[in-house]
Amino acid sequence: MRVKSIFSFRASLKNRILFFVFLLIIITAVFISISFLLHTWHAIGFEYYLIILSTYIILVTAYSYVFLSKVFASLEKISNIIEHGEKYKDIYGHLEFEEIKRIYEALESNESRRAKVSRKKDTYIKELEDQHDIKRREIEDMHSQLIQASKLAAIGELAAGIAHELNNPIAGILGYAQFMAEKMKKMADNNDHTALMFCKYTELIANESLRCKKIIHNLLKFSRASELSTSSVNVNVVLADAIDIVQYQGHLINIDFKKRFNEDIPLIKADAAQLQQVFLNMIINALKAIPKSKNGTIEIITECKKDKNSKYIVIKIIDNGCGIPKSNIPKIFNPFFTTRPVGEGTGLGLSVSYGIIKGHNGIIEVESEENVGTKFTITLPIIEG
Ligand SMILES: Nc1ncnc2c1ncn2[C@@H]1O[C@H](COP(=O)(O)OP(=O)(O)OP(=O)(O)O)[C@@H](O)[C@H]1O
Ligand SMILES: [Mg+2]
Q1: Closest of 236, 349, 365 to residue 287, by C-alpha
Q2: Ligand 2 center–CA 350 separation, angstroms
Q3: Confidence label for 79 from pLDDT (cuts 50, 70 and 90)
Q4: Which of 155, 285, 364 to mutate to test the pocket of ligand 1 (most atoms within 8 A of CB)?
Q5: Which residues contact 67 (CB under 8 A, 6 or more apart)?
Q6: Would you put residue 318 in left (φ > 0), alpha (ψ -120 to 50) or beta?
Q7: CATH superfamily, region 231-381
Q8: Position in ligand 1 atom list of the atom nearest CA 338
Q9: What is the pLDDT of residues 52-66, one digit of tens each?
Q10: Which fold has domain 148-222?
C-alpha cells in the first residue's frame, strides 16, 4: 500500500521529494561508478561536473518551487484542520498531511450534508407537529361536540317523554279553565266581588296553562318530535324577515344591523317558519346581550361552503355584546338554562333552535369572549329543492 502510494498521483509531497532525492543520488552514484570503471575519472573535465551540478540545482529549485507553492496553498487548509480538527488530533495525528487533508475534506462535506439533512429533519418535524396540533384540536372539538350532542339527545328524550305525558292533562286543564272563565263571566253579577274574583282566577289558570302548553310545544320542538313542513326556502329572505321583525327594537337602542348576504346561495329544502324562529331567537339574544350604553352591531352573514362530498349554507350571527362566560358555554343549549332574571326568559330559545337545526341535519356552533362578543354559526346542508 505504502509503495503503491509513492507512485500514485495522490502520493504525499514528502514521499515524492524523498523519492526524487533518492533518484538523484542513484544517478550520481551510477555516473561516478561508470566513470571509475571506464577509467575516465581524471579525463572528465571540471566543467562537466559543473554542468551536472547546475542541472541538479535547477531540478531541485524547480521541484522546491512546486512543492513550496503547494505547501503555501495548503496552509489555509492546515489552519482549518488545526482549528476544527483539534478533537481528531489524537486519532489522526500519525497520518500524512495529504491524508489528513482528504479526511478533513471528507469530514467537511459530511458535516455540510449532515447539517442539510438535520435542517430537513427539523422542518419535517415542525410540519408533523403542526399537523398533529391541528388534528388534536379537531379531535377535541369533535369530542366535545359528541358529548354535547349525546347529552342533549338524552335530555331531549326525557323532555319529549315528559312533554308528551303533560300535553294531554294541560290541554284538559286549559280547556276547562277557559270554559269556566267564560261561564263565570256570563253568570257573575257585577256587584258580586267573590264571583268576579273567581272569574279572574279562572282566567289566570287558563293563561298559565297556555304558558305551560307553549313550553311543552317548545320542548317537543327541541326533541324533534314536531314535524317539519318543508318547502323551497331562500335563507336570505327568511333572515331578512327576521331582521325586519326585530329591527324596530334594535333602532331604539342604537343597534346597527349589518347584512352581508351572499346573493347567490341556492334555495334549500327547509321549514321556513322553524328557521325563522331560530334566527329570531338568536338575533333577540344578541340584542339582549348588548348593553344599552354601547353602540352595538349585529352582523348577519350568509355564505356557501363546500367539502369533498357536500355543499352547505353557513349563517353567522355576530354581536359585540357582553359575551358568554367560558363556564356557561357548555350549558347554553340545555333546556331551561338562562341567565336572565326570573320571568324574563324560559331558557328554551337555544335548545329549541338546536333541535330545529338538528332536524334539518345542520349544526350550530358558538364562539364567545366575555366583553367582546359572541358568534353563532349555523351550517345547513344544501339539499336543493
Ligand atoms: N348572543 C348572546 N350573548 C350573550 N349571551 C347569550 C347570547 N345568546 C345566548 N346567551 C346566553 O345563553 C342563555 C340561553 O339562551 P336561550 O336563548 O336558550 O334562553 P334565554 O334567551 O335566556 O330565554 P328565552 O330564549 O327562552 O327567552 C341566555 O340566558 C344567555 O345567558
Ligand atoms: Mg333566547
Answers
A1: 349
A2: 6
A3: low
A4: 285
A5: 13, 17
A6: beta
A7: Histidine kinase-like ATPase, C-terminal domain (3.30.565.10)
A8: 29
A9: 777 777 777 777 777
A10: Helix Hairpins (1.10.287)
